[in-house]
Amino acid sequence: MSGSGLPVLPNLNGFSVKKKPIFTTGLMELMPGKELQVAQQAFPLWEFDLLYEVLRTTTNNAVDDGYFSEYFTQYEAILVVFLKAYGQGGYFLFDDLSDNSRTGQIIATADGVSKTFRIVRNWGTGGVSMTEPIGELNQNLSFQFYDNGSPVSPTVSDDGTEITFGTAPTANHTITGDFSFYYKCRFLEDNTQFEQFLSDRWENKALKFRSVKLVPQVIGFNAVLPVDGWSISQLELPSGLRMDTGSLSYGCLARLDGFLVGTLYNHDGSAWFGYYWTLENPGGIPLPTARPFSNIPWRRFLSSVWWNRASDYSGQNWCGTMVESYTGTFQPISWYFNQQVSMGISDTEPNQVTTELWGIDHPGQSSVGHINTDGADRAIWITNENYAQVHTMDQLDAGKNSRAYAINGGANFIFGWDTDSSDLIQAVRWDKGSGSEALLDVPGGNLFSAAYCVDNDADYSGGKVITGDGHVRAIYWLGTSTHTLLPNVGSDTFGECRGISDGGAGLVKCGISGNASGKLRAVAWLNDVPTELPLLFGCDPAVDVSEAWAINADGNLIAGTCTLQGTVRPVLWRLS
């Protein structure tokens, strides 16, 4: 038996073993000579076909004569695993003698936060290799794990697939291990045939089984036929973490290079973490955690909870809002992940102010958001190099709420909303230098308006407006005096512009809209004509929803989320 209690199928030397890797690929012929391939697994399943030519046994109730006794239960040892697994109904472990151990295996690079790591092993040599999770650690043989070369003794999970440290290993430390492992498998049929060809001699000419999926096997791929040139790619969720519908935010996609930043949380919701993805690394990379401010004791800090995040032009700097205290008070952080340095907005006790950051300029030098004092939000901007200094913006009516969401590449204009003396929330543009603000033009009789995004030169900005009939409409502005309402993809009365590419004839907007069936859909507007962006392969259009949160400078890459089988997935849409 194994550590998990699963039976182990004996692998007897001298018998034939056939082994083949299996991938799943969706293949669609678009036209003669052109195909669309959909890779649906990040690593293979392994199928085995064993030939047992002679399995010795002893007739029940026969007296053991002492000769060849170790071979006399071979038949029973194989058969009982099949019986205990209920055919295809259960799992068992297989010790593949050709692939059952690793020495010096790199398991992970620590991020300073994570305590639990999946046990993996590499396949391949040289520059051609892949990493795959093991089925289960073989705890019947000796094993040892290391933190940056020093022996450690983490706790092994009940199913033998993960190790957990009492304290998170230091960031950038390499976690390695020397260990043996099993494949976790199931039989391919509910019956198998044994033949007795001599007294107490049996054979099985084809015992077939294969490994099973252990973690979500999701990689970046074009999943469905493109819609108006837009194709969708799914990004991987790291093992043990998941997404929520609000895990991405305005400006979460780098304007040039396709870096995407978002929030993930563990399955019991007790800890949240900032992650970023790149086109070359769809597996997700953790952002560094914040350092405690100088006069806040360590005991106040429990976990990193990310809310909103934004990327600069190149994807080299981030801003966001994080919680690291008992009280759940917001503490905004400007992130420089390429230098692994985090900077906080204020060096005060966390219960004195509540702050959130929503946007960052293209060079990564200034961030915008709001600060809450005396029960009211006030739009602010900070200089990332001088993060302790907060600059507040002018207000339509002092003491009322205002928020800033976006700043243009040149860092001279800031966009958001402000509340006037009649308590009407209105879309505004602030001049960063003077702090003065200007109202953005909206339809008469509106009930609410807000600006969420801007292009590089601050020529165009986008957001939403609630019109006098109560409909929520996506809107964009040219300067401050000209507005355009964007059409929805269907008859639904909801829409929101969340991202806008650089200005010009090829201006592309992205956001959300209700479709003809009233379902929330990610939308791209090209020349003000809406396109409902495609869902992931396997989605149910009557159930699943999608959202677009940000767009790159060229207008050909959109970041967002799509639900699939009840799970929120991070996705990218590409325009070919």
Description:
The chain has 576 residues and is an all-beta fold. It folds into two domains: 199 residues, no CATH class; 244 residues, Neuraminidase, CATH 2.120.10. It has one helix and 46 strands. Strands 1, 2, 5, 6, 7, 11, 12, 13, 16, 17 and 18 form an eleven-stranded mixed beta sheet that branches. A hairpin with a 5-residue loop joins β41 and β42. About 7% of the residues have low confidence.
Beta-strand fraction estimate: over 45%
The appropriate CATH architecture of the largest domain is: 6 Propeller
Spans of at least 5 consecutive residues with low confidence: 216-223, 290-304, 336-342, 345-352
Tell me the domain tally.
2
CATH topology descriptor of the largest domain: Neuraminidase
The helix tally amounts to 1
Gross morphology is elongated
SSE class: mainly beta
CATH superfamily of the largest domain, called what? TolB, C-terminal domain
- Given this structure, which CATH class of the largest domain is correct? Mainly Beta
Tell me the Rg in angstroms: 29 Å
Share of residues in helices: under 10%
Query: Terminal Cα separation, in Å?
Result: 53 Å
The number of distinct β-strands equals 46
Question: How can the largest sheet be summarized?
Answer: 11 strands, mixed
Average pLDDT score? 79
SSE blueprint and pairings:
Layout: E1 8-9, E2 16-22, E3 25-31, E4 34-39, E5 45-56, H1 74-84, E6 92-94, E7 101-109, E8 116-118, E9 120-125, E10 128-133, E11 136-137, E12 144-147, E13 150-152, E14 155-156, E15 162-164, E16 174-187, E17 195-198, E18 201-211, E19 230-234, E20 241-242, E21 260-266, E22 272-277, E23 285-286, E24 305-311, E25 318-323, E26 330-336, E27 341-344, E28 354-360, E29 366-373, E30 376-383, E31 386-392, E32 402-407, E33 413-419, E34 425-431, E35 437-439, E36 448-454, E37 460-466, E38 472-478, E39 482-485, E40 495-500, E41 508-514, E42 520-526, E43 529-532, E44 546-551, E45 557-564, E46 567-575
